[in-house]
Amino acid sequence: MVITVCDKAGGEPCPVFFGPAIKSHWGLADPSDVEGTDSEIQAAFDATVVQIKKRFEAFFSLDHSAL
Q1: What is the pairing mode between strands 23-28 and 2-6?
Q2: CA dihedral 6, 11, 12, 17 (to 10 degrees)
Q3: Which residues are paired to 6 by β-bridges?
Q4: What is the pLDDT of residue 10?
Q5: Burial of 66 by CB count in 10 Å (0-12 exposed, 13-18 middle, 19+ buried)?
Q6: Element housing 6 (H / E)
Q7: How many structural domains compose the chain?
Q8: pTM of the predicted model, to two decimals?
Q9: CA distance 30 to 59
Q10: Alpha helices in the chain (DSSP H)
Q11: pLDDT tens, position by position, 14-34
Q12: Is the pLDDT of residue 53 over 60?
């Protein structure tokens, strides 16, 4: 499984992988682009981690034999 996560990477070609691979793009805003106070920047990173965790939880709940 190859997952890209950055909105900026959505249109970029993926690296070459030998063998079959399921590819998915999880468009997430880059938290390093956030400007503001330290707590606002930290909140952006925390929110991104929460989104990634939720998507992995959803992914792991799938029937992988059907993918």
Answers
A1: parallel
A2: 90
A3: 28
A4: 54
A5: exposed
A6: strand 2-6
A7: 1
A8: 0.73
A9: 21
A10: 38-60
A11: 666 677 878 788 888 889 999
A12: yes
What is the overall mean pLDDT for the chain? 85
Q: Positive or negative CA dihedral for 42, 45, 49, 55?
A: positive
Q: Does the pLDDT at position 58 exceed 70?
A: yes
The candidate with the shortest Cα–Cα distance to 26, out of 62, 67, 58, is 58
Give the DSSP H or E segment for 27.
Answer: strand 23-28
| Full residue range of the structural domain in which residue 28 is found | 2-66
Phi, psi of 57 (to 5 degrees): -60, -45
Q: Is 5 helix (H, G, I), strand (E, B) or coil?
A: strand
Phi, psi of 46 (to 5 degrees): -60, -40
Is residue 21 helix, strand or coil? coil
Question: Taking the C-alpha atoms of 45, 3, 13 and 10 in order, what is their torsion angle to the nearest 10 degrees?
Answer: -50
